[in-house]
Amino acid sequence: MANLATSFTLWLSLLSYSYINAMAQWPAGRSTRFYEFKVQTMRMTKLCNTNEIVAVNNMFPGPVIYAQEDDRVTVKVTNASPYNASIHW
Ligand SMILES: *[C@@H]1O[C@H](CO)[C@@H](O)[C@H](O)[C@H]1NC(C)=O
């Protein structure tokens, strides 16, 4: 029984440790988050077809912006594609 209680306590402290750790990595509100987006074309092969697509930071779909309510988000966008583009979010 003591073993069970000890392992439960250990499990609980590990759980709280990871929770606190996760909270430390998640930014608090009212902070400013900076992102850099480079819009460029890249070749993508899907079902044996290769096409040129417009991607952000070589990712399609583009990168995720993490923010909380009241955060300020600044995104520096560089359009290195041959097209005029607009970004919607
Ligand atoms: C992009 O937009 C500008 C301003 O409207 C226009 O002059 C230019 O021809 C456009 N370029 C392309 C590649 O569509």
TrEMBL record:
Ranges that cross the membrane: none
SUPFAM superfamilies listed in its UniProt record: Cupredoxins (SSF49503)
GO molecular function annotation: copper ion binding; oxidoreductase activity
Top-rank taxon: Eukaryota
Domain Plastocyanin-like: 39-89
Signal peptide residue numbers: 1-24
InterPro entries: Cu-oxidase-like_N, Cu-oxidase_fam, Cupredoxin
Entry keywords, A to Z: Signal
Family membership noted in the UniProt record: Belongs to the multicopper oxidase family.
Entry protein name: Plastocyanin-like domain-containing protein
Annotated source species: Tripterygium wilfordii (Thunder God vine)
